[in-house]
Fold these 2 entries.
Entry 1:
Amino acid sequence: MLYLGWPDKQAGYLIFGTVLVIIFGGLGLHLLKQFFTGKVLVKITAAGFYDHSRLSSTGKLVKWEKVVGLTELPVGVQGQVSVRLKDEANYLAALPVYKRLLVRPQLKLGQGPLNISLQNARFVTAAQLIKIMRIYRQGQK
């Protein structure tokens, strides 16, 4: 008799379970690593800053010369920092379509197109970040 199926019904379940353990185990390890090591939300340099705090962030350098104002938005415990730019239309035009759609609600609320979310920040508040950013910004003038 010729049998072309699985040698045992349990083998299929075993293979499927092993694949799931590998996938979700790897994902769990990645999440634990991110939880303990953290993530860089904002990188501040003498030339400007890089925003990596949310999905709508570009991750590109925003030069201090383009920044008009920094304001604190009291959202949640940590808050947000709203950054007003000299030429917001050019900034928005450079964003991909899906990021423009994500930014649209904050523009309707009268906020800047660039909001730095500190929801996941552990050791800094919005007021402290604004103070640090103003020090770097004044060093450029």
Entry 2:
Amino acid sequence: MKIAFYYPYSSIFSKYIVSAEHITLLGILFTGVLLRLPLIFIGIWRDEAAVFFDLQGETIAQILHNISIYEFTPPGFFLMMLPWLRWFGHQDVMAKLPSLMMGIGLIFASYRLGRMVSSKKVGLIAAAMTAFSQPAIFFAQEVRSFTPAALLACLCIALYCRIFRHGGERKPDWIAFILAMTGLLYFHTPGCLFALSLGVITLVLWLKDRSRDGRSSFPILKFLIAGIAIVGLYAPWLQVFLGEIAGGFSYTGVRLGDEQLNLLGGLFE
């Protein structure tokens, strides 16, 4: 069903067509905003407050040092929040707005992904499931990397499917996929498991395609090059990540000094 609106005084915008699909999507997005907006006023808790602590430093190098010692999360989210907090202040509500906006973006991204891989109906169902998902609602107000990472993961899958749609022939798709996957790795540590899983899926798809006649048009070489590029871009943080894995927990075995403990105590008072 389509509803047409006519505006006789404009030669350029003389006809507007709004489909039932778009009206439904707007309703889902509006509902998602209503479900998430009140939660940005609940204040912050320990892990969110740690973001403010980790960003204390006169240089980016000092901030990265803080993150490598006190966090099990890569620096992407913190570097995103650094200019935001400097521009808009450290108030709780302002600090939560980036996650809120990305939470709404995740609803739309779910719609686009569902529409791409299946149909308009599936896209709307995916958007509705995201809008009403309790974890998605809760994490959309947290000053942590969960919601941005979910949005990046959704984008990675969309670009992955887009690569297959165009037969792996479009360079912009590959570049966007490499950047999105690298961004995910720099925003959230479990992104490594996501990337590894996608690599295994790619290998299975290639083997399945090859088993038909012994030959394959599957762009496995391009995926291999993309994987090498992603690892190369992640290499600057890889040593820190491996050290955290070896230690089994964050803080990389470094004990806090009295001055740092006093600073933490003052932060939470």
